[in-house]
Amino acid sequence: MKLPAHSLRRLAAHQAQGQAQFGAFSGLGADGGPLSPMGGRWLAVPRSADADTVRSLGRQRGESRELARTNPIAVGAIATNINRVVGTGLQPVFSPVREVLGWTEEQASEWKAIASREFSLWADSTECDYANERNFYDWQALVLQGRLESGDCFTVLPDGELTSTQPYRLRLQLLEADRVGNPMGAVEGQAAADGALAVGGIRRHPVTGRPVACHIYRHHPGDT
To answer: I need a labelling partner for 38 at 20 to 30 A (CA). Which of 48, 89, 197, 220 fits?
Structure first.
């Protein structure tokens, strides 16, 4: 079936308009390079991942957390992720391999009961938290929230005091991503510029490039 002449003309007009609007990615420049949707040259420079993100990381974190406090869509997106990933808390499943250990089924069942009881003794108590505020399952939601809002989240494992209700020294301490940054530079109050060995507070091996250390501020840099 042939289209009427006026339909053909309208289709051609739509195609021409789309070519004008979206030809940015079709190589219409004189040198074969792409044009921006506004008709000018699109001067995108290929850079490393650090160059693309670290420079504006502080501003992006501030904007992200501002949205998480004030925007219902952002609040809902974060809450949905936490509920679906963590829920009421992820729990370990103790499953010793009896064939490797040479245990009987009764020995394996006894060990699982002991391990579950001892883990719960530590995880169910807020004393697993260095600040004595959250238990292990509350921590899971807090860490995921910090990762979604700030992009990073650092947990350290300091030793705590033994108490009458907590026989284990292991504690959890959360460090906000903002507290990891380059050491202070020559200008007072300003961190040193990113370089080949330290970027965003992460120091790397000069040969392999693997992370070898984190520089952590004693206080949050945005704390007034």
So the answer is: 48
Q: Among candidates 161, 174, 162, which has minimal Cα distance to 216?
A: 174
Question: The tokens of 151 are what?
Answer: 């992009």
The pTM assigned to this predicted structure is 0.73
Alpha carbons 184 and 181: distance in angstroms, whole number: 9
Distance (Å) of CA 192 to CA 61, 153, 175, 178, 182: 19, 22, 20, 15, 6
Task: Give the amino acid at 121.
Answer: L
Instruction: Quick: pLDDT tens for 192-204.
Output: 788 877 888 999 8
Taking the C-alpha atoms of residue 183 and residue 189, their distance in angstroms, rounded to an integer, is 10
- Residue ranges of E strands in the chain: 153-156, 173-176, 198-199, 202-204, 211-214
One DSSP character per residue, 179-206 reads GB-PPB-SSTT-BPPP-SSEETTEEE-T
Contact status, residue 58 vs residue 80, Cβ threshold 8 Å: no
The strands making up 198-199's β-sheet, listed across from edge to edge, are: 198-199, 202-204, 211-214
DSSP 151-172: S-EEEE--B----SS----B-B
* Whether 120 contacts 89, CB under 8 Å: no
